[in-house]
C-alpha cells in the first residue's frame, strides 16, 4: 500500500481538468517509457460534488482496457506500482472547468484505442473520438474545450497529432507539477 499522506495534503486543491501523469515501475512501464518519455499513463481529475455523500472524493477519468471511465482516485493510488504527478491547470483556465468536465463525461464509455496505441510504437497518430487511449482522451478534452494555444510548444512541434503522456505538459496549460506518490 502506498502512503497517501502527500495526496491527502493536496486533494482539496485538485480540480476538474487537472492532469495526472503516471510512471509505472515495471518491465512494461520501462518499455513504454523508451517510446513515450518519462510517463506511461495520463488521466484527468474530475470533481463530482453533485454526487450526494461523495463531495470530498476525487475521481480521475482515464482510458483503460474497459474504455474511458471514472474511478475513485484514492483507490487507484493505494496500490499503484510507480509514481504519480499532479499538474494543476493555470488559474486563467478556471472559467473552463465546467466545459472540461462536460467534455469528459460526454466521453464516458468510449472504447479503448488499442490500435492507435500500437501504432504509437512507430510514430504519431491522429486524434479520433471513436476510441481513445489515455493521452488522446486528455488532449481531446483540452482541445474541444478550446484552451490549447496553437502557439504552445507541443502544437508548434506536433500540431494535429495525438500526444503521448510525456507530451501533455508541452501544452503549457499547467502550473508547477507536484509528485505525490
C-alpha geometry? globular
Average of per-residue pLDDT values: 91
Span of the ends, CA to CA: 11 Å
Could you give me the name of the CATH homologous superfamily?
A: endopeptidase domain like (from Nostoc punctiforme)
CA gyration radius, whole angstroms:
15 Å
* Beta strands, count: 8
CATH architecture: Alpha-Beta Complex
How do the strands and helices of this protein lay out in sequence?
Blueprint lengths: L4 H6 L8 E6 L2 H10 L4 E6 L12 E6 L2 E6 H6 L3 E6 L9 H10 L4 E2 L1 H6 L11 E2 L1 H11 L8 H6 L19 E2 L2
Parallel strand pairs: 6-7
Antiparallel strand pairs: 1-2, 1-5, 2-3, 3-4, 5-8
Give a description of the structure.
It is built from 7 helices and 8 strands. The chain is α+β, with helices and mostly antiparallel strands and 181 residues long. The protein has one domain (5-179): Alpha-Beta Complex (endopeptidase fold (from Nostoc punctiforme)), CATH 3.90.1720. It has a 6-stranded antiparallel sheet with strand order 4-3-2-1-5-8. The chain has a two-stranded parallel ribbon with strand order 6-7. Helix 5 (114-119) links the parallel strand 6 and strand 7. It is globular, with a radius of gyration of 15 Å. 35% of the residues are buried. The mean pLDDT is 91.
